[in-house]
Design a protein that fits this description.
Elements lengths: L8 E8 L3 H12 L7 E8 L6 H14 L3 E5 L5 H14 L7 E5 L3 E3 L3 H11 L3 E9 L5 E2 L2 E2 L4 H9 L2 H6 L14 E3 L1 E2 L3 E5 H7 L11 H11 L3 E12 L19 H41 L9 H15 L5
Parallel strand pairs: 1-2, 1-4, 2-3, 6-12
Antiparallel strand pairs: 4-11, 5-12, 6-7, 6-11, 8-10, 9-12
């Protein structure tokens, strides 16, 4: 592996679905920064947004304000997150002059500082690192978890039980790392603001197209780690994220909500691809066991259970039954 020069180029990709105003703000947060001597190109993918997101907002804004500074990709189907990014990644990989790095920015996120320079500098200096993630805060300024451990059966169990003494005893068995986690190597970082080496994305063929939404970035970073590269969290690079605005799935949401079928499928795919069918079954049983323990604990504490709404109906039907019957369809 060799270290890229300081004038390394960066392709920024924003994938939008139904949040044109936020996506425009995300793109403009990139255009407004200096980026040092980095060569920056910006790509905005519209995943066949409903209504007039593409034609009335993005296309007009691109023509009137951005010009050649932004390449607009108007797709005719909703590819989801990973495949939406792959639309651009695949094209970049086949160019004669591909960028050195690719930075993925959620449409509901915006740069707060020269994050691209900070992240690129980290990759320039450390050829053993394959991807770097920025620190993320809410619009209120509150920092949120942006660095994580890989999910596992024991972590599913501890999270599902949601019992303070157990959580404190097994704090290293939690997936999210603290919001104030220091800079350094981690298992994976938030896909809302992450920079990859283009050479690695090319070698790994980008995101796994079997995923529609959720867990695709975790699986990709699992492959990158398996290929011998490190993933680093770099909180000096700052990004503001209106968490979940583009998907209506917010981790800070207090009320219980059901999970869409594609979320459960992505959960299952992640475990099958990283731990095999038996590992996926074990993780599923661990989640169910933890959820069943959480029910009486929640009653005793006068609180509702932490599991998603309809979990005990949806999870066995959408995850455990296909796993046990071997009908995973991957």
């Amino acid at each position: 592996m060799t270290t890229e020069p300081n004038s390394s180029s960066i392709a920024v990709i924003v994938v939008n679905f139904g949040t044109a105003n936020l996506a425009i703000a995300a793109v403009e947060s990139v255009l407004a920064r200096e980026h040092g001597d980095r060569i920056i190109e910006v790509h905005l993918v519209d995943n066949a947004s409903p209504g007039n997101d593409a034609s009335d907002f993005l296309r007009i804004h691109q023509e009137r304000s951005w010009g050649e500074r932004v390449t607009l990709w108007l797709e005719t189907e909703n590819h989801g997150f990973g495949r939406g990014n792959n639309v651009v990644i695949d094209r970049l990989a086949h160019r004669s002059d591909p960028p050195d790095y690719v930075f993925l920015l959620n449409p509901d996120a915006a740069l707060e500082n020269e994050a691209l320079v900070i992240l690129a500098d980290k990759l320039d200096a450390s050829p053993e690192i394959g991807a770097v993630g920025a620190g993320i805060s809410l619009p209120s300024g509150k920092p949120v978890a942006a660095a994580f451990r890989f999910p596992s059966a024991i972590r599913e169990f501890v999270q599902a039980v949601n019992f303070g003494p157990l959580t404190r005893l097994m704090s290293t068995s939690l997936v999210p790392l603290p919001a104030d986690h220091p800079e350094g190597a981690v298992d994976w970082v938030a896909g809302a603001a992450v920079m990859f080496r283009m050479s690695i994305l090319r070698a790994e063929k980008g995101f796994d197209p079997d995923f529609f939404l959720y867990y695709e970035e975790v699986e990709l970073m699992h492959r990158i780690r398996r290929a011998g590269y490190q993933i680093h969290y770099v909180p000096r690079a700052r990004v503001q994220h209106a968490e979940g605005a583009s998907t209506d799935e917010k981790s800070q949401r207090q009320e219980r909500r059901g999970r869409p079928a594609y979320w459960y499928r992505s959960w299952m795919l992640y475990y099958v691809k990283t731990r095999g069918q038996r590992g996926a079954i074990l993780a599923g049983l661990a989640w169910i066991a933890g959820a069943l323990i959480n029910i009486p604990l929640s009653i005793l504490r006068g609180k509702g259970p932490i599991m998603p709404k309809n979990f005990l109906k949806d999870f066995p039907r959408l995850v455990m039954l296909p796993l046990l019957m071997g009908k995973i369809d991957v």
